[in-house]
Design goal:
This protein is an alpha/beta fold. The chain is built from nine helices and twelve strands.
């Protein structure tokens, strides 16, 4: 669909002249000979720009511009005043005050007219292209959501009987199987359960990516302390020093920040489990701008050369035989931080522990 230009002038000859000067600019030209007709045209469809005569009977160009700017449906249409009045500062200021973006004084220089109009045609086309791309992106997200649901439903269907029947064979016929056959069945069950966990994590990442941030005051210290209390309750005999810096508050989405801290603190708990005594700490650096929060542990750490890979989905620096998991937690952390317009990064050394940092600008 071609962009449209609205030409408004009460003199037929002026409209003909404008049409002749703009005829080959790959756009549709629409006429209006009165202010009321111009407003009706504006409400009837989109225009890239309006060329508006100032001196018209009944309703002059200033009044048309004022009405157009006052209506949400037409307030963003660029207005170029075309006038035979003398180029006086008070007239120009009045025109800009009613919402004009430019002035052309008659007799209009055709080259200048075409150059100015071309700018707004290009802006309109780019804006329409952006609108179309956003709409296409929304359609893609909807299709991805439908695909994720399909994957969740269709892939789970065969996994459940695969796991269930394997367990039934072990329970009902275990005494008739040798150790190798039992081991095969155990491996089948483990693979089915891992695939189910991968599906769950893929859906979690998809949901986080589409989540809307609803900012409000959040007590990060209280969230971190609650998570650490839960972790300690799962292994009360474990010698772990869990430290939470008090009174750390920010503005952000409480649900998303809960998920962020759960992933970081549970990771720290997991990767310190082979140490006889460990230390996990949550705090912030006051001298960092913006403020940087951190979760630090003294666990197995990792090679800093691979730090960037940590935040990619399903990337792992340790095998599943060493530490369980699918490698999705830090990808979720990064998505949440990006949703808050912040930044996440990691520092570590092998067998020297790891520290994960994130910023949460309070915009």
């Amino acid at each position: 669909m071609k962009p449209r230009i609205l030409l408004v002038d009460d003199v037929e000859a002026n409209l003909i002249a404008l049409e002749a000067q703009l005829d080959d600019m790959d756009c549709d030209l629409v006429r209006a000979s009165t202010g009321n007709e111009a407003l009706r045209q504006l409400l009837a469809g989109e225009f890239a720009v309006m060329l508006l005569d100032v001196q018209m009977p009944e309703m002059d160009g200033y009044e048309v511009a004022r009405y157009a700017r006052g209506n949400p449906a037409t307030r963003d249409i660029p207005i170029i005043f075309v006038t035979a009045m003398l180029e006086r500062e008070d007239k120009v200021l009045r025109g800009y005050g009613t919402g004009a973006v430019d002035f052309l004084f008659k007799p209009v220089n055709p080259h200048i007219l075409r150059c100015k109009v071309r700018v707004f045609l290009d802006l309109y086309r780019n804006r329409r292209r952006l609108v179309d791309e956003v709409a296409a992106h929304k359609r893609t997200l909807a299709e991805l959501e439908a695909f994720n649901y399909s994957v969740s439903h269709d892939l789970r269907a065969p996994l459940r009987p695969l796991d269930g029947f394997s367990q039934a064979i072990l329970e009902d016929y275990g005494d008739k199987l040798d150790d190798r056959a039992k081991d095969y069945l155990v491996r089948i069950r483990a693979a089915a359960q891992r695939m189910s966990q991968l599906i769950d994590d893929m859906l979690r990442l998809s949901r986080i990516s589409r989540a809307q941030v609803r900012r409000q005051p959040v007590n990060l210290s209280a969230i971190a302390q609650s998570i650490m209390d839960e972790l300690r309750a799962t292994e009360p005999a474990r010698d772990a020093e869990l430290i939470v810096q008090p009174e750390l508050s920010t503005r952000g989405d409480p649900g998303l920040l809960q998920i962020l801290l759960e992933n970081l603190l549970r990771n720290a708990w997991k990767f310190t489990q082979k140490k006889p005594r460990c230390r996990i700490e949550f705090g912030k650096f006051e001298d960092h701008e913006p403020i940087a929060y951190f979760v630090r542990d003294d666990g197995v750490g990792f090679d800093p050369a691979f730090a960037a890979r940590l935040f990619q989905p399903f990337q792992r620096l340790h095998t599943t035989s060493e530490f369980e998991g699918t490698g999705i937690g830090l990808a979720i952390v990064q998505r949440i931080v990006l949703h808050h317009q912040g930044k996440a990064w990691a520092e570590a050394l092998p067998d020297r522990g790891a520290a994960f940092f994130f910023t949460l600008p309070e915009v």
